[in-house]
Write a structure and sequence with these properties.
Strand order of the largest sheet: 1-4-3-2-5-6
Low-confidence stretches: 280-289
Helix content: 25-40%
Number of strands: 9
Number of domains: 2
Shape: globular
CATH class of the largest domain: Alpha Beta
Strand content: 15-25%
Order of helices and strands: EHEHEHEHHHEHEHHEEE
Distance between the termini: 53 Å
Length: 289
């Protein structure tokens, strides 16, 4: 498996594949790979002729005081997992080269980034979209694969690609869960044994909301908030029910699909999760309308 540390080398090695008409897939990650990442790689390998995965802990998406320094890192382990998954190359640039101190350009997606994660982490998505844009321009893939665990991120990246006419298909892949229901996350390794038990409350609350869903967005939101507020070891950040396309909060009776999203602190570790609610279709009714 190739390991690239600079854009020029990766472009040089990928060019013959593009010239031959082979489909290139990209799996952007921040490393510390787990089953969720590997499910993205597996789908990319199935659908593309050659697959590249990026491993880059993006400093631009962390605000001062967030867990950039403690974010899990295992580059050698990541390389082994990616090679075993059939990935052809790993792009692992250094922060100094990929986010140079003199940079002047930021990619901002308006509207979709204001609420949920954006309300709690105001600078987060500018960092995400700036680096994802750089990765897409560096690898120039036909398809790029993102997990639905970071659902708002998926919606934001799709909007960026659409608005900027980037010639890439953004493929969303389902949340992968550990046997107890906890969504796979690189941050799970930071949880103590007791915190791990508490963390399962996030997926349990979402599952209960999905199973009892009767089209009442307000009832689902109240249930999520009250359940997680009462859960031991959980400090709730937000629990919301939104339109899955616009991310606008829903209210009243909902005839079409909805998405429930939660974020909470478990000890010093912040976790997010989400689940779809209801069938496909139209007819949403938004809060305040």
């Amino acid at each position: 498996m190739h390991v690239w540390h600079d854009v020029a080398a990766m472009r040089r090695d990928l060019w013959p594949h593009r010239r031959a008409g082979r489909a290139v897939g990209l799996v952007p990650t921040m490393g510390a790979l787990h089953a969720g990442h590997l499910s993205l790689a597996a789908r990319a390998v199935e659908e593309c002729d050659i697959v590249v995965a990026s491993v880059f802990v993006n400093p631009l998406q962390f605000a001062p005081g967030e867990d950039l320094a403690s974010y899990p890192r295992d580059p050698e382990g990541d390389a082994g997992l990616l090679e075993s998954a059939g990935v052809a190359g790993m792009f692992a640039p250094s922060p100094e080269r990929f986010t140079p101190p003199g940079r002047r350009t930021t990619v901002h997606v308006g509207g979709l980034t204001a609420g949920l994660e954006g309300a709690s982490r105001p600078t987060h998505f500018d960092g995400v979209t700036t680096i994802v844009s750089k990765l897409l321009h560096a690898a120039w893939p036909d398809r790029a694969y993102f997990g639905e665990k970071d659902y708002q991120q998926l919606v934001v990246v799709r909007a960026m690609v659409r608005d900027l006419d980037m010639p890439v298909e953004i493929v969303g892949c389902p949340v992968v869960r550990e046997p107890d229901g906890l969504a796979w996350s690189s941050r799970n390794v930071l949880l103590s044994e007791g915190q791990r038990v508490h963390a399962v409350a996030l997926s349990a609350a979402l599952r209960a909301a999905a199973e009892s869903w009767a089209g009442d967005a307000d009832a689902a939101r109240r249930s999520l908030r009250s359940t997680l507020a009462a859960a031991p070891g959980i400090r709730l950040d937000y629990a919301e029910v939104v339109d899955p396309d616009t991310l606008e909060p829903l209210a009243g009776t909902v005839e079409g699909p909805a998405r429930a999203l939660v974020a909470a602190w478990v000890g010093t570790t912040r976790l997010i999760d989400n689940m779809p609610l209801g069938p496909g279709g139209a007819g949403r009714r938004r809060a305040g309308r």
